[in-house]
Specification:
This protein is mostly helical and 285 residues long. It is 67% helix and 4% strand. A hairpin with a 3-residue loop joins strand 2 and strand 3.
């Protein structure tokens, strides 16, 4: 899957350049402010790299799903994840339901109704799809029952574990650069605990809808790339937290996301991609 590799490497490069901008260039303007070309480069990277890494990550997961899971299933998951998450995000930014009251600050692309960046539903899709494939794959390979229910539950678990470190990395009140701000203080690094419930609810909703519309169990996709993409984004947020001395979110995300994902999928990491199956009527699965 050459295109998947290219998109993933672009996604990774955007994440790394983002780290460089946020951790080195932003707090040290003397390194670039006297050079007009460097100023333009810094301004461009701060304005577009946040959105670019999401677009490339979504593209990589979309192409991977198209090849390994099937066109129909991938498009169903894409539509369910983006539309449902956008609806939840609009309710959250507009009415504080179900996450609590918050607002985006910019840097993640144009806004839908001046409330939610257009890239945010894409991030729900690509991390949600990776988390679901990790969870459902682990359930199928372990032979647990009922597979459909447990796959959705475990997928929502892994998705929410990502937010344990993402929210502190992106919105902690002492950070010099925040991508969203909370208008209600809470016990988890300034974040209300109901935000985590909102993540669980959002993930469960679009994963359940996708699973019901699929009308089938585990699609047999290889585990390596979803796990790689998940761990890449988890690690990126961990680095941001560690750079600002936030150790607790890193430990929690490792305990509830990174370590379980690796342990559950370790026996399957050598699997080869499953060929695209075609139903008797000619429709890809």
């Amino acid at each position: 899957m050459m295109l998947v590799r290219v998109l993933y490497l672009g996604h990774l490069a955007a994440l790394l350049f983002g780290l460089l901008g946020m951790l080195v260039l932003a707090p040290n303007p003397q390194l670039w402010s006297s050079n007009p070309l460097a100023v333009r480069g810094y301004t461009f990277s701060m304005q577009y790299l946040g959105a670019l890494h999401i677009v490339l990550g979504a593209g990589a997961m979309l192409v991977f799903g198209w090849r390994a899971v099937g066109r129909r299933k991938t498009l169903i998951f894409f539509c369910a994840a983006t539309l449902i998450s956008l609806a939840f995000e609009l309710m959250g930014t507009g009415f504080g339901i179900p996450f609590g009251p918050y607002s985006y600050t910019g840097g993640l692309g144009p806004m839908v109704l001046d409330l939610v960046p257009v890239t945010i539903p894409l991030s729900w899709f690509y991390l949600g799809f990776a988390a679901y494939l990790i969870g459902a794959g682990a359930v199928a390979r372990a032979g647990w029952r009922p597979a459909g229910v447990l796959g959705v539950l475990l997928g929502a678990w892994f998705l929410t574990a990502w937010d344990l470190v993402l929210d502190p990395a992106m919105a902690y009140e002492t950070l010099p650069l925040r991508f969203w701000v909370w208008h209600e203080s809470g016990p988890y690094f300034g974040m209300p605990l109901r935000n985590l419930l909102g993540w669980v609810l959002t993930g469960l909703t679009f994963m359940t809808v996708s699973r019901l519309l699929w009308r089938s169990d585990w699609p047999g996709a290889p585990a390596r790339f979803p796990l790689l993409l998940y761990l890449t984004n988890l690690s990126w947020a961990m680095v941001l937290c560690l750079a600002h001395g936030l150790w607790a979110p890193v430990l929690l995300a490792a305990a509830f996301g990174l370590v379980p994902a690796v342990l559950l999928l370790r026996p399957a990491l050598g699997w080869r991609p499953t060929p695209l199956a075609v139903a008797p009527g000619g429709e890809p699965r």
